[in-house]
What does this fold into?
Amino acid sequence: MTAKHWIRAEPQGLYVEPADCWIDPSRPVDTALVTHGHADHARGGHGCTMATPETLAVMDLRYGTDGRARPVAYGEDVMLAGKVRATFHPAGHVLGSAQILLEHAGERVLVTGDYKRRPDPTCRPFAVTPCDIFITEATFGLPVFRHPPTGLEIDRLRETSKAHPDRAVLVGAYALGKAQRIIAELRQSGHDAPIFLHGALERMCRLYEELGVPLGDLRPVADTAKDEMAGRIVLCPPSALNDRWSRRLPDPITAMASGWMRIRQRARQRNVELPLIISDHADWDELTATIEEVDPAECWITHGREDGLLRWCALHQRRARALALVGFEDEDD
Amino acid sequence: MERFAALLDALVYTRRRTEKLALLADYLRETADPDRGWSLAALTGGLDFPAVKSSTVRNLLMERVDPVLFQLSRDYVGDTAETASLLWPGTDNPSPPSVSEAVEALGRMTRNSVRHDLAALLDRLDVSGRFALLKLATGALRIGISARLAKVAFAQAFGVSVDEIEEYWHGIEPPYAALFDWAARGAPPPRCDDQPVFRPFMLAHPLEETELDLKEFAAEWKWDGIRVQLVHVAGATRLYSRSGDDISVSFPEIAEALPFPAVLDGELLVRGSHQGGESGGAASFNALQQRLGRKTVPRKLLAEAPAFLRVYDLLMIDGDDVRPLPWVERRNRLEAIMDRLDSGRFDLSELIGATRFEDLDQLRAAGRDNAIEGIMLKRRDSPYVAGRRTGLWYKWKRDPLLVDCVLMYAQRGSGKRSSFYSDFTFGCWDGDPGEGAELLPVGKAYFGFTDEELKWLDSHVRRHTVNRFGPVRETDRSLVFEVAFDSVHRSKRHKSGLAMRFPRINRIRTDKPAHEADRLEALQALVVD
Ligand SMILES: [Zn+2]
It folds into this structure.
């Protein structure tokens, strides 16, 4: 049945045939439905982009406006061509992230994009949505990936900073979502001190605030004297961690917030001294629990460690297959 | 166990030596006996639990986790102990054993009991604890801590000298109760004069711009072999390398040749005529290298490359520790025992007869053939003391060889240097650069420059990158280094067929165009073997 199904995986994305539209396509198309603003899901250049208002705002910031933008609110009914109904539901991944539910000919297909299940002060929580076909990511689709409680990791970050009043703690964090979540989690834990930002994070943080996510006292590293950042927390994109840029900070302690930090060797390879296991993707337990909870007739598994999740489905007598999509990278997530 | 697990985690992610030392010292000071002793043993590679192997751990996991998921995870993580620590079904109420409790339990395990007993221990721990336990149990910590660093940390923790620790180290067993009693509680030091253990070497400072009075200092050649200690105590003989590793099995002919109680300090060499000609009697370092690291030595190799010991000093003789005696006294006793030794296996390091320093300087300059490394100067009244003491022994290396090379590749350093391109690979021309010759790499160096120069080099690399391969950048081959090195040898590992010993960046020659850098022939002419 899958070969003739009305949704199918093409190398450049998921194609919804009756509506002639694509979900998270990796190349410019006429009509794209976009789950969230991360670069491997949201690309510029489409004729018409349907996404949540927040995702559209992120895309606008990143690519500028080109083509038509069609904002779709969570829960809003949208009739596409070919009698395909689409609704967007919160995915709990980053601000504006959505699972896209497509209904056609009495069948419900849920495309989750990326998602997580634990609380995130910067976005709406994942909504469990019943469906027949559940299309899931598998970024952390191996049982070694079990993220510890976020609060513990935030505590470690604050303790390290407190223990080194003469040094900055430099946290590498993905520019969309992770950086703002770290800031919001710090604020929630009572950290009111100024937090310093690499230039590449400033605009996105400002956008989050405009969209109603308060982030407190943020200051650009560029305008700050070196010694003012001693004892402070500084955020930068992961690529800047070991770069020359970091020399302007007082003797920085290198931290990185990512689910990959669970693996010691991954952290060491990046010269990370303080690995923080904080991810915007579901860990193994969240992935498997979500499949049980949604309880679909079939699972389609996309980017990540598909082998592990496929094996789990087989062990639990669940129908599953892996979709070969290209263009998805392991984010620094 | 929690504290030890936290220490391992912190050490894994700490790059700076001073911080590693501080972490270790705090742990050793603050942890109770005998836990800290067992931990020290784990850190110095002194624990072995034959019943627990990597395969044991794997089999244990396969019983609890789907084998396919285990294998996928193991392939991804790359380390069995870490994979197992992450996959082991966790507990909500850990009741971790102490390090001693864990070590005792591991020591009692047999091939039959290990499945049950190791599982019982793992059930009591959290993720970090399981990682620490499995690392401890399988004996391969691999967290970048050398035994020496652990001992330096011990010295720092209790304000004792690391030389003294080295002196006692080889005579004590985990959990080193006597060592902690001495260092932490002021008890008398541990005894080790009745065992064939390694005694720490006396080392020399480099001689820099000083003239020494040869009435006070004796001079001898510094031979290019490996410094060793031959120990015969309590009926057993052992040959130790400079780091204290027992290398007796690689050189059985030496270990068998000392028939009476003594401890000798000397240079291990192979018979030949490269060093000092026929009378020098020693082959080049390359000839010795083929004998190193062997568990068994083929008879053919024993005949072709027989080893011998060129004796420098005497530490013990017939049960007497003569280290406190002045060098002259020890030398007299050493000379007196030479005829009790097989002259095929032992000879005495000759003293250089110069009486004026200028003469010595001339001998040194001419000495590239005579003694490849240079000259040793030893205070005639110096006792034999562990480590490097100012004013007692000096090594006076002959001037380094110099060659002009072109920078080809640069790689980021580690630790404090991780944001700098600080490891440099350089090459020489394989012909006339005007006729299309190519550069072939001849060596790699990561020191010899100042911090200021490093900044400059880093920015040069960034501005002149033509290619990137992971952490490595290829440069446009425009910068010339004057490279200093001690000697150059033939090598099959490098495309240029040459390998330098101790290369370092001597000068950055911004004044010299790349095509004027040296050709391979210049280096080939300096090969001594
Ligand atoms: Zn994403």
Q: What stands out?
A: Residues A 36, 38, 41, 93, 114, 331 surround zinc ion (CB under 6 Å). The mean pLDDT of chain B is 89.
